[in-house]
Specification:
Shape: globular
Strand content: under 5%
Oligomer: single chain
Number of strands: 0
Order of helices and strands: HHHHHHHHHHHHHHHHH
Structural class: mainly alpha
Helix content: over 70%
Length: about 450
């Protein structure tokens, strides 16, 4: 079966499950090895745990640019493949990859030049400054590889080849998880060992994914196809801006969260909130992986004008995503103290973390509706709507809440900020989702009427 037949004819439930299994595994593995640094560094000290949590904002920014280029180029090339415009798809693949490498080098150079100032800006204290700077400098060296692997990974997914994407991430995850205990504990390298393990894993993923892009029906990334012009930059921006905003604002929200946590509860509070952030990301990672199985289905079928399949896939993902998050949310609520303790057996860290984790799991199922709506809008090229929604959870609502709530409730205000932001984001998502679903119904009817008219003309 060809790629086109698979994406346009396979029943939606089985197609999304088939495509999402590799992406769920990929996202869970990525979340696992992102949390591996936190876990093994937690065996060193609370200050080291806090330092890794502080630099998470920098990693989120690097990921933001990677997703910007990856999602921006990926959903465009998928729509072009659906419309059978292969030349444009090939040029976009090469252009998105090239831009990500350029941005990666810029971030690596500027980040290391201003590492001292960035560490202060992140909220490093006198007890965490040295570890924060040490961990960040090494992470920044890997920025080009990190961004490049996000681009190739997403481009493979949008072509319907989630298996290659999964294999690439798995290789990197294995390298990272093996090196973490070896370097952090075995060679007593502390946070430097954690950073080296992370960068080594990202480099492995980069090269394996690049090799995978030359397999099967995948688009080959070729130098001659690079076209950095106004058209492709616009399309990358239109499709990638929601990801840039979502990830970029996540970095800013983490930075603000760490700053206010530090003010209200010191290093233990920073460590506790950092652990909760990683745990919640692990749960959301599975949902995102599920949604990533829907993204190529959405963009390809939208390009092929099969609007009913786009709508069917959306409702399928929202329903099962909600059920999944409801189930894991209950488990995390019940075992919140044990989960935080597993990362860092410090009573003060557990005290902060358990409250924040329980608050976030209370609204966790709402993320299914928010994330799937955002993915649908982004995959169809609805850049403005997708950008507004992507900005809400960690920006439009989170920023004012993290400023207001701690001043009223103290440390509790820090712990409940994300919960309140998720509720408000859900209220914003409802009109955006309803309007787009109505539009899909209208387009489906128009396409059906046009098809019937064409048949009558033939007769």
């Amino acid at each position: 079966m060809s790629r086109r037949e698979m994406l346009t004819e396979t029943p939606i439930p089985s197609l999304i499950v088939k495509l999402s299994i590799p992406t769920i595994i990929s996202m869970m593995v990525t979340a696992l090895y992102n949390s591996a640094d936190t876990y093994f560094v937690g065996k060193v000290s609370t200050e080291a745990t806090a330092s890794v949590g502080l630099v998470f904002s920098v990693m989120a920014i690097i990921q933001a640019f990677g997703f910007f280029c990856g999602h921006g180029s990926g959903n465009y090339l998928s729509r072009m493949l659906g419309a059978e415009k292969n030349k444009e798809a090939n040029e976009m693949a090469a252009t998105g990859f090239a831009i990500s490498l350029i941005l990666g080098v810029i971030v690596a150079v500027l980040g290391n030049l201003f590492a001292d100032s960035i560490a202060v800006w992140l909220g490093a204290t006198s007890t965490t400054m040295e570890d924060t700077e040490k961990y960040m400098r090494i992470i920044l060296i890997g920025a080009p590889f990190m961004m490049g692997q996000f681009v190739v990974n997403n481009q493979l997914r949008y072509q319907g080849n989630a298996m290659y994407a999964m294999v690439g991430l798995m290789f990197g995850a294995v390298v990272n998880i093996i090196l973490d205990p070896l370097l952090i504990l075995g060679f007593d390298m502390g946070v430097a060992g954690a950073a080296i393990a992370t960068v080594a894993g990202q480099m492995m993923s980069f090269f394996v994914l690049l090799i995978g892009s030359f397999k099967g029906e995948n688009i080959r990334i070729k130098f001659k196809n690079i076209k950095i012009n106004r058209h492709y930059i616009y399309e990358i921006t239109n499709g990638g801006a929601p990801s840039l905003l979502r990830q970029g604002l996540a970095a800013m929200s983490t930075l603000l969260l760490n700053n206010y946590a530090g003010k209200m509860g010191g290093d233990a509070a920073i460590a506790g909130m950092s652990i909760v952030t990683r745990v919640v990301l692990m749960m959301i990672a599975a949902l995102i992986g599920f949604g990533q199985g829907y993204q190529p289905v959405c963009s390809f079928n939208y390009g092929a004008k099969l609007y009913g399949r786009v709508r069917e896939g959306y409702f399928f993902c929202v329903k099962w995503g909600f059920i999944f998050l409801f189930a894991v949310g209950i488990l995390c609520f019940v075992f919140a103290p044990d989960i935080v303790w597993w990362f860092r057996n410090d009573p003060e860290v557990v005290k902060v973390g358990k409250v924040a984790l329980r608050c976030q799991t209370c609204v966790l199922p709402l993320s299914a509706f928010i994330i799937m709506t955002n993915m649908m809008l982004q995959s169809m090229g609805r850049g403005l709507k997708a950008s507004i929604l992507a900005s809400a959870k960690n920006g439009l609502f989170f920023v004012p809440l993290i400023i207001i709530l701690p001043n009223i409730f103290g440390l509790l205000g820090v712990e409940i900020t994300q919960t309140c932001s998720d509720v408000l984001t859900t209220l914003l998502t409802i009109p955006l989702a309803v309007s787009e679903i109505k539009n899909l119904v209208r387009l489906e009817k128009e396409a059906s009427s046009s098809g019937q008219d064409d048949q009558l003309q033939v007769r």
